[in-house]
Specification:
Blueprint: E1 2-5, H1 9-22, H2 28-35, E2 45-49, E3 58-64, H3 78-92, E4 97-101, H4 114-139, E5 145-149, H5 156-169
Parallel strand pairs: 1-3, 4-5
Antiparallel strand pairs: 2-3
Helix pairs in contact: 1-2, 3-4, 4-5
Length: 182
């Protein structure tokens, strides 16, 4: 999954809307801009097919906004809901392996502290787990592989903390079969 940021899209639309009202212009131009299907909103995605990339057949490009770089996203954020919809498409179209940027970003920045990374990873892990459980009821539990990617510049300590979080969230309880002896 490739995440692409459309950073000031909403502010540009708002500025265009405000400048149209200040000049006494009609809102028709702004309505056309908002209806244009080339303007992708946060949480929406598009798919590209690839034959020249090793082991990658399709790429999902998820549109996100600046909220992804802040620590304030929730399970109802457009980026998380877009990730859910991507997993849903994978399920319905028999895509069995997907790679997801764990922190929903490709590069680390100064505001991405250790607590920020841990909160974000926990949110993504838990949401993906919930989405996988939801999707399993649709396809009969076909085996799927989810790979979580971390930025290259992440510290070794942070990598180990994130990898220790994985078995805690995705723990599997073993089943016990009871039979009666007659």
């Amino acid at each position: 999954v490739a995440l692409y940021a459309r950073t000031q899209r909403r502010s540009k639309l708002k500025e265009a809307h405000d400048s149209g009202n200040q000049n006494g212009g009609s809102d028709d131009k702004n309505k056309n801009t908002e209806r244009n299907y080339l303007n992708i909103l946060p949480g929406e995605f598009y798919i590209t097919r690839h034959s020249n990339l090793s082991e990658i057949h399709v790429a999902f490009h998820l549109c996100v906004d600046d909220n992804v770089k802040s620590g304030n996203i929730t399970a109802r954020d457009p980026a998380i809901m877009g990730l859910r919809n991507i997993l849903k498409v994978c399920c319905t179209h028999d895509i069995t392996t997907i790679s997801i940027p764990l922190l929903l970003v490709h590069d680390m920045s100064e505001e991405m502290t250790i607590p920020w990374c841990l909160r974000r990873a926990e949110l993504v892990f838990k949401c993906v787990k919930g989405f996988m459980m939801e999707m399993a009821s649709w396809d009969g539990g076909i085996s799927r592989t989810v790979q979580f990617l971390v930025p290259q510049s992440i510290s070794e300590e942070m990598f180990y903390q994130l990898s220790n979080m994985l078995p805690q969230i995705f723990r599997v309880s073993s089943t016990l079969t009871l039979t009666s002896k007659h």
